Every structure is written in structure tokens, then in C-alpha cells.
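Model: You mentioned two targets. I'll fold them one after the other.
Researcher: Yes, keep them separate.
Model: Target one:
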Amino acid sequence: MLEALRNALKLPDLRRRIFFTILILVIFRMAANIPVPGVDRQALSAFFASATATSQLAGLLDLLSGGAVSNFSVLAAGVYPY
């Protein structure tokens, strides 16, 4: 596997694509932790605690969003529906 990674990094076009993909993933994870201003985080966490206790849909939605929904991050507010 390491040999395949070395061979992939030798090709300039493939190396650029791999690094771009890693950069996009890092930016997404950082943006998933930026909260929306004006949201009461304690009320939101209480809502998710009660919602996940009664229904697993909220937990699944939070899992699929990478935690962006329970943090009510900028990504959950604007990009997630698309």
C-alpha cells in the first residue's frame, strides 16, 4: 500500500488532486465547528438530547452531517440541504 501511495505521489497531476481533496476535507471539518451566531447552544444541546432519546432520526442526521447539525454550524445552516 505504501508503494502505491509513493507511485501516486510521483505523478504531479495525481499528487495535486490528492492534496486538493485533503485540503477540502480539512476546510470542511474546520467549518463544521464554526457556530452560527445568536443560537443558544445550551437550548440546542438540550433539544438534541431529548430528540435523540425519543427518535433516532436526529442522531442519524447528526451522524451523516459529521456533527454539524448538533453544533448548528455554518455548514448545517447553509450548505447541508444541498
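Model: Target two:
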Amino acid sequence: MNKKIASEVAVGIILLVAVAIGGVFYWQNKINGQQPAGDDHQRACTEEAKICPDGSSVGRTGPSCEFAPCPENGKQDAVNNGPQQVVGNDRDEHGCIGSAGYVWCEEKQKCLRTWEEGCIS
């Protein structure tokens, strides 16, 4: 009988301690004006993109995760760095495309990439 009483007392003490700890946390949150974790209305939006008519893209934003508005034509924040060069349009006098890594090999009389094929035979 003593073991039964001792186990009931132990369970009672554990329950009292648990209730006391819960009460302390509740009281501290109430005094500090904090909300329980996970109730802050923050939301992670999916990382989708919408392609706008001008070719740019916008992502989802805001509390309802709606797509941001597309930029209006003519009002884009673009940086003008002078005339645009098309990549691959930089051929030298032999027709080798330097931006793609091609150089002229006099011995083989052709354009090649030196890391793919050596110039000296």
C-alpha cells in the first residue's frame, strides 16, 4: 500500500510542477505582451516567378503572397552602359569568337580553344 501512495504522491508532484512551469510561461508572455511562437502571421511565399510582357520577371510578395506588379514600359530601372553587344558577335580577323574562348592557331589554320585542343601538333 505504501508503494501505491508514494507513486500517487510522485505523480501529483510532477503534475503540480508542470502546471507551475506552464503558469510562469503564460504569465511572462502576458506581461511582456508577446504572442505565442508561430502566431505572428508571417508567411513564406513560394518562389514562383511571373514573366511580364516586357520579358522581365516578378516574384510573390506581401502577406497574401500575390505577384508584384510588372514594371510599366519605359519606367524600368535599367542602367544604360552604352551600346549593347551581342555575346558571340566579337569575331576577330580570322572569325574566332573570343568571348567563347576561341583563339586562332596558325599551325592548324583554325580557331580552337587551347584547353580543349592544343595548338602545337
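Researcher: Noted. Anything on target two?
Model: The beta strands are 49-51, 57-61, 66-67, 103-105, 110-112.
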